[in-house]
Specification:
Blueprint (H helix, E strand, L loop, with lengths): L1 E5 L9 E4 L6 E2 L2 E2 L1 E9 L2 H8 L10 E2 L3 E8 L11 E5 L7 E4 L4 E3 L6 H5 L2 H14 L7 E5 L4 H12 L3 E6 L2 H10 L3 E4 H11 L1 E6 L6 H6 L1 E9 L13 H6 L2 E4 L2 H5 L5 H15 L6 E6 L3 H9 L6 E5 L3
Parallel strand pairs: 11-12, 11-14, 12-13, 14-15, 15-16, 17-18
Antiparallel strand pairs: 1-2, 1-6, 3-4, 5-7, 5-9, 5-18, 7-8, 8-10
């Protein structure tokens, strides 16, 4: 089968499309599900994995693909899945024509979701759900401000916030990204160049920050009393520093969001998250915005575009099925 593989840890340009053996249902840990992959979501962890910079560090060669969707080819009798079931998957190895996975890392798909949209979901939407519900304790009627709102986690946060009855404000850098955030359902859009001037007057309850960088302090200023700033990532490249007296003086919190570190050691947690999101999918509140749809062979360029912040919405790779 074809698979997008990391051979050397030299970044996305060094990824190769190779012919490799298909995964078997039998593993040293017992039987696993085998999935015929239809679509793969381009995700930030794949970029880090290609450089050896992710928290999980598999030895090359290995197959990329942390988000994917397809159809069950075979499954253990006690897995809850059967051949023909449509699923989304998260983990590693999805950027191939066939993927092997434990049932715990697979999720059932509503018929209303295409494989392309499903491949845009697992990591981004489970991260957004964990951030808003578990870390922020989001309540109906609260307001969430989202940096990097046109990216995959950003658009997911807009929609999950709406599913919980919250209002969203999207911070974006271009007209194109403003359109993506609006299409995702945000209630208000702010251009990044006006955010600093408006921050003190916003009084939001939650800030979702995947960017980091020099707007961090202004994000704290944007919080109302008892507000929560969620530290999700640093795609802007700079890790900001926090003077903790700001938290004391304003009665606000800064909270870390490490979805992977929390969920991967808690069997069943991800499926519980997915089950909470399913009604939002079925109601159409969750409808992932898709950017470019490209063949698997375009994975290197797609990850380079992601690294250089040219990506709008979620890029999806297809396997030609």
């Amino acid at each position: 089968m074809r698979a997008a593989q990391v051979i050397t840890l030299d970044g996305p340009a060094a990824i190769e499309i190779r012919e490799v053996e298909e995964p078997s249902a039998a593993t040293v840990f017992g039987e696993q599900c085998v999935v015929d992959v239809h679509a793969v979501g381009v995700a930030f962890p794949d970029l880090l994995l290609s450089k050896g910079e992710y928290q999980m560090k598999p030895e090359p060669p290995f197959t990329l693909g942390t988000d994917y969707a397809g159809v069950i080819r075979s499954a253990p009798a006690d897995s809850g899945f059967k051949p023909g079931d449509r699923v989304a998957g998260v983990g590693l190895g999805g950027a191939a024509e066939v993927a092997g996975s434990s049932a715990a890392m697979l999720f059932p798909l509503p018929d209303s979701l295409s494989f392309e949209k499903a491949a845009a979901m697992p990591m981004n939407y489970l991260t957004a759900q964990f951030a808003l519900k578990t870390r922020a304790g989001i309540q109906p009627g609260e307001t969430v401000l989202i940096h990097g709102a046109a990216g995959g986690v950003g658009t997911a946060t807009i929609q999950v916030a709406k599913g919980y009855g919250a209002r969203s404000i999207a911070v974006v850098s271009t007209d194109e990204k403003a359109e993506v955030a609006a299409r995702a359902g945000t209630d208000e859009v702010i251009r990044v160049e006006e955010f600093r001037d408006r921050a003190r007057s916003l009084g939001v309850d939650v800030v979702m920050d995947v960017v980091g960088g020099d707007l961090f302090t202004d994000s704290l200023r944007a919080l109302a009393p008892f507000g929560r700033l969620l530290v999700v990532g640093f795609v802007g490249g700079e890790i900001p520093e926090l003077k903790i007296n700001r938290l004391l003086l304003s009665n606000i919190d800064a909270r870390g969001v490490n979805w992977g570190g929390y969920t991967f050691v808690r069997p069943g947690y991800m499926r519980a998250q997915w089950d909470e999101l399913l009604p939002m999918m079925e109601a159409g509140v969750i409808d992932p915005p898709i950017g470019d749809v490209l063949p698997l062979e375009s994975i290197s360029q797609a990850l380079i575009d992601l690294e250089e912040r040219r990506t709008v919405a979620k890029t999806v790779l297809t396997l030609g099925r």
